[in-house]
Write a structure and sequence with these properties.
This protein is an alpha/beta fold. Helix content is 38%, strand content 12%.
Length: 370
């Protein structure tokens, strides 16, 4: 995705760096704009996305940012939930304050309490100095509780009190410390089911779930794949050595038809591996090592209902051409070069698609190159 940071995701923070250039529309890199301004899709920072499904998520996150309500961000592991959390913080009135993230799944229970609430010197064996907890460290900013559903119920009760009372009691402390913190939590579980199982407190769930955001899996926003792949090529280009790298049409098709159970984190690792394994300017499917596409998973795109990966070749060619047009912002010359077609052949295919009522990205890119 720390974005978005854990090495190798999305690294959510890193996802907030863009590879886009002016004229690269419709690859949207939303602005980390000052509070109360709408996102600017052509700036050089923000989440990397192009799919309409993800566009709706960003719009919702931007509306949420100006409030101080607690937010629950849902989604599978590796989808970039922390990216959205950071986007909300940076577009909020608290953007000048700290953004503090705590991974509730990675810290053992006996350490998480001290991590969150802090402790006084001598509060327990080994407490040699005073420690400020993450709740206090996020004062006047935002606290991200990553994978909140992994937290022990006992700590859930203490967290609930801190949120309700807006104060924190350090372990061994004599007086509570007042808090001014916005809470954002993430989960990759069905948290309502966890409430029914009584592994997650219902009262804390309602306290956190004032507003919710669902980040779709990568397989549900296939139009993001070319944009994210190009971003990761740019990210690891120095490590791969001199020269430009690009995906072949076959490689782009392989990426677009893969299931991505590991979501954006898996895509990043796939691109990184491909750059390590090949020294060629063009990345072919063999360097990706993603395996064959699923014959069961429906492929959805911006243009219509689901189809299946096991389809006639001319339909797969059509999808690759239209995906490449989206990738280049409609630049016909760039698209033809990328796909190894003549500009005349590309224009003939576009005319055919338009006559069939298929939505084709409008001409765009560098003037005079269409």
């Amino acid at each position: 995705m720390t974005v978005y940071s854990a090495p190798g995701l999305l690294v959510p923070d890193d996802l907030e760096s863009s590879f886009a250039r002016p004229g690269d529309y419709p690859v949207h890199i939303t602005a980390l704009a000052p509070p109360r301004r709408p996102p600017a899709p052509e700036t050089d920072s923000g989440p990397v996305y192009r799919d309409p499904t993800m566009h709706a998520v960003i719009q919702r996150a931007h509306r949420i940012a100006n409030s101080d309500a607690s937010v629950l961000i849902r989604g599978e592991s590796g989808t970039g939930k922390e990216v959205i959390a950071r986007y909300i913080h940076r577009n909020s009135p608290r953007s000048a304050g700290p953004f503090v993230a705590v991974n509730c799944a990675a810290i053992p229970e006996h350490l998480l309490e001290s991590e969150l609430f802090g402790h006084e010197r001598g509060a327990f064996s080994g407490a040699l100095t005073q420690r400020i907890g993450k709740l206090e460290a996020a004062q006047n900013g935002t606290l991200l509780l990553d994978e909140i559903s992994e937290m022990d119920r006992r700590l859930q009760a203490k967290l609930l009190r801190a949120i309700q009372e807006r104060e924190v009691d350090r372990i061994g402390g004599r007086a509570p410390v007042r808090l001014n913190v916005r809470i954002i939590a993430t989960t990759n579980r069905d948290i309502e089911l966890e409430v029914k199982r009584q592994t997650f407190r219902e009262d804390l769930y309602f306290r956190l779930n004032v507003v919710s955001v669902h980040v779709p899996a990568l397989r549900q926003r296939a139009a993001d794949i070319p944009a994210l792949a190009e971003y990761f090529i740019g990210k690891y280009r120095r490590e791969a050595g001199p020269g430009q790298r690009r995906l072949s049409p076959a490689a782009l098709l392989a990426l677009s038809t893969h299931d991505w159970p590991g979501n954006v984190r898996e895509l990043e690792n796939t691109i990184h591996r491909a750059l390590v394994l090949t020294t060629e300017a063009t990345i072919e499917p063999g360097a990706l090592e993603v395996g064959p596409p699923s014959t069961l998973r429906p492929i959805t795109d911006m243009r219509g209902p689901a189809s299946f990966a096991c389809r006639p070749l001319h339909l797969m060619e059509r999808d690759a051409i239209i995906a490449a047009l989206h990738h280049t912002g409609g630049n016909r010359t760039h698209t033809a070069s990328m796909l190894g077609l003549s500009i005349r052949a590309l224009r003939n295919k576009i005319s055919l698609y338009l006559s069939q009522g298929i939505d084709v990205p409008p001409s765009g890119g560098v003037p005079g190159t269409q």
